[in-house]
Amino acid sequence: MSIGERIRELRMKKGLSLTELANRAGVAKSYISSVERQIQLNPSIQFLNKISAVLGVNVQQLILEDDPQGEEMDIEWLKLAREAMESGVSKEQFKQFLEFQKWQKSNSSD
Questions:
Q1: What are the Sin domain coordinates in residue numbering (predicted)?
Q2: Which parts of the chain sit beneath pLDDT 70?
Q3: Which pLDDT belongs to residue 62?
Q4: Which of 20, 78, 82, 96 could form a disulfide with 16 if both were Cys (CB 3.0 to 4.6 A apart)?
C-alpha cells in the first residue's frame, strides 16, 4: 500500500473530507489529493508530519509498508531512510542506487 493510499484510508476512517484534513493540517487540499491519487509520490517529511498529527498516527505508519513477517524495521534503517528523505533523495534515486549495487555485486563475482 502506498503512502497516499494509507493517508486516504486513515482519513476515511476518521471521517474527514480532503478539505477538513487540509484545513486542520495547514496544507493545500490539492496537494493531499495528488498524494492520495499517487500523482505526487515523494511528499516532504514536513507534509507527512502535519498529516500524521491530524490523523493521530506517527510518520512511520504512513511511510512504512506493513511487514508481512510482523518484524519491526531496524532503528538504524529507519534513521538512514529518514536522513535520505530529509536530504532530498527521491525514491527513484534510491531505487536506482539499489539496482546499481545489485548489478555491481552480480558482476563482481565473475
A1: 64-102
A2: 65-74, 109-110
A3: 82
A4: 20
What's the CATH number for 1-66?
Answer: 1.10.260.40
CA atoms of 53 and 7, how far apart (whole Å) = 12
Question: What residues does each domain of the chain span?
Answer: 1-66, 69-110
| Burial class (CB within 10 angstroms; exposed 0-12, middle 13-18, buried 19+) of 95 | exposed
Q: What single letter denotes the amino acid at residue 76?
A: E
Q: What is the pLDDT of residue 69?
A: 45
State the pLDDT at residue 39: 92
Residue 67 to residue 109: CA distance in whole angstroms: 31
Alpha-helical segments (H) within the chain: 3-13, 18-25, 29-36, 45-55, 59-63, 75-86, 91-108
Per-residue DSSP letter, 57: S
What is the pLDDT, as a whole number, of residue 66? 55
Per-residue pLDDT, 68: 45
